[in-house]
Amino acid sequence: MSSRERILGRVRRALADTQGEDTPIERTYLREHGDRSVEETVELLAENLADYRAIVHRCASADLAATLAGMLAARGAKTVLVPPGLEPAWLADADTEQIPDRAESTPHELDRIDSVVTACAVAVAETGTIVLDGGPDQGRRRITLVPDHHICVVRVPDQVVSSVPQALERLDPVRPLTWISGPSATSDIELDRVEGVHGPRTLEVVLVDSQASEDVNS
Amino acid sequence: MSGTFVGMPAFPEAAHEAVGNKTLRGNLRHATHTIRAKRAKAVAEVSDWAELREAGKRIKDHTLRHLDRYLVQLEESVVASGGTVHWAADADEANAIVTHLVKMTGESEVVKVKSMATQEIGLNEALEAEGIRAYETDLAELIVQLGKDRPSHILVPAIHRNRGEIRDIFEREMSEWGRPAPEGLTDTPAELAEAARLHLREKFLRAKVGISGANFMVADTGTLVVVESEGNGRMCLTLPETLISVVGIEKIVPSWQDLEVFLQTLPRSSTAERMNPYTSTWTGTTDEDGPQNFHLVLLDNGRSDTLADEVGRQALRCIRCSACLNVCPVYERAGGHAYGSVYPGPIGAILSPQLRGTASEIDASLPYASSLCGACYEVCPVAIDIPEVLVHLRERIVEGGPVVREGNRVVLKPAKGHAAERAAMRAARWAFTHPGVLRTGQRAASRTRRIHPRALPGPGKAWSGTRDLPAVPAEPFRDWWQRTGGGKEGTK
Ligand code: SF4
């Protein structure tokens, strides 16, 4: 008998007493906590991101290129990793050398790059979380992991949801997902929180007003 | 389960030794109290905690009742998304599968994400025996590995070590395993974390094989989920070419939507955060992103036997948040090592004897390593009634009765006159001769009177069969005595 058959057989025999019974799953919990306006939700996202020690910036769509250029310059970044589908205009003002995200690049090469700029798939206000789904403007999972500095651009309010249930609804499980809440951290030494053990030690999030951009375009 | 920690004495002796160790007790007390207070705050933030807890319990119960169906569905989804599924009935089989898979890659070293399942089966030792070196990459696991030590907590395995000890371990051992500790390393947590970062980065960047567990497996999509803080998990899950995940068969949830419950309750119960810094989900393999070979090893190792026990099976709901450890008065004093298993604390006291059986003295003594105060049940995010299972297991050990071992129904002999009973009595005596343990237990017992068993377990059963047990008083006698000076100051 294969182990597969053996295990399934054991499981079935173990459940012999429960024939015909079931435990219905009841979802009486909330879809979101609290009643907030759109602005208040974005405000809560900014607050919770900062509470988890991400550095939060807010700007209008028209100022995004200047904002990103300023952030990279302030960091002294000489090289920046760029996912293939990142809006080219975003980095138009940056003086930093742009390195494309390539399948062939080795982890050691990525380790030598100063910063990475990505978009995101969705952001969760209640938990201060940004979620990346490997889309063209976010790139492979490893590019937001190996460099020490990650800048993530969130279009508000379109990409912001209140809660974890709302985020899961929007996400595609087939894509590899990375949920990020603040920079890498550990509390393994006497429970003192230390930032940046293995992931990026600095996480900067830019909340860019996507509605303003529509106004400008129309 | 691959036996107890080697040469492990039964709980009472191990605990006795631990209680005498002042450093250990100080470290533990600080840690458990810190997490406990933070957790209460994080839980209070969500107004629907009771509903989330109930939903989590029901999702898990529902899954366990149809585990055969969900296992088959999970297998289909993982295979459809490009993964390979292996089934392991016990620890030896799981170790053999993983060793074989690593050898097929031609590699002789692997990086590991912290995982209870691989510790349970003793994977590192099995790989070592075949000439494969496994590097633990979670900071606490690294401390344990370098210190040639054993983990003592589910979430913070090096909780028993203070910063000075960690510094000494790094300085002494790092060079044996790779990049040495920096010159003049001090004991500030930031410097220690930096030393670990440099030491481990070397290994991540060259690793070709990663080994992980998983917090959840989603049956309908074939998605695996790893929840972590440091990013070492992400490194192991995305940089290597081959990823091998060893996961207990009870870790299934039926649907993608079910994650909405556990991604809210797990971080809050475990690290007391709204959300842990990193959560990774992956479904099979993705072209040009992450490992191109993915193997899932489904591990039984006593789980189907546990499932056969109508009372005990609720232990399989456990999501390993470790909240029950941090509130347990016995754990706080005895420390994780005394439980002789990778699963310490209240959950360990009910899980280990079920996974491994109660043949050994330590396993037979574990159900007694508790004051039945009920605090563990109150914090558990999937509402496992740990006291109920403890009482049930005590009865089983003392009275004997039918159990399932390795898929076969066997009748356990009563432990009368056997080592188990002696161990049990010693454990009880141990608790009664440590007033601190007893006192904390009694106080909580008063608050949780509702959930107390109405019949005595074990030898007292016949007596309580015809009588009601006296109710636990609203205030323990000791507290009353202390408060009133023995009644001198009036009763209120
Ligand atoms: S038994 Fe409950 S509280 Fe304890 S680790 Fe498991 S889920 Fe957490």
Keywords:
heterodimer, A: 218 residues, alpha/beta, Rossmann fold, 6-stranded parallel β-sheet, 4-stranded mixed β-sheet, 23% strand, disordered C terminus, B: 492 residues, binds iron/sulfur cluster
Average residue pLDDT of chain A: 93
The radius of gyration of chain A is 21 Å
Strand order of the largest sheet of chain A: 1-12-7-4-2-3
Return residue spans of chain A where pLDDT drops below 50 for at least 5 consecutive residues.
213-218
- Number of extended strands of chain B: 12
Mean pLDDT of chain B: 85
Class from helix and strand fractions of chain A: alpha/beta
Quick one: CATH superfamily of chain A?
NagB/RpiA/CoA transferase-like
Summed up:
The complex is a heterodimer of chains A (218) and B (492). Chain A is of the alpha/beta class and 218 residues long.
Task: Walk me through what this model shows.
Chain A has helices at residues 3-14, 38-51, 64-75, 107-111, 164-170, 210-217; strands at 55-60, 79-82, 97-100, 115-118, 122-124, 129-132, 149-156, 160-161, 177-180, 185-186, 194-195, 202-209. Chain A is 27% helix and 23% strand. In chain A, a hairpin with a 7-residue loop joins β10 (185-186) and β11 (194-195). Chain A has a single domain, classed as NagB/RpiA/CoA transferase-like (Rossmann fold, 3-Layer(aba) Sandwich), CATH 3.40.50.10420. Chain B has a domain at 416-482. In chain B, 49% of the residues lie in helices and 12% in strands. In chain B, α2 (22-44) crosses α12 (259-270), α9 packs parallel to α10 (189-206) and α16 packs across α19. The interface between A and B is large, with 74 and 96 residues. β9 (177-180) of chain A pairs antiparallel with β9 (278-283) of chain B. Bound molecules: iron/sulfur cluster (SF4). Iron/sulfur cluster binds next to α14 of chain B.
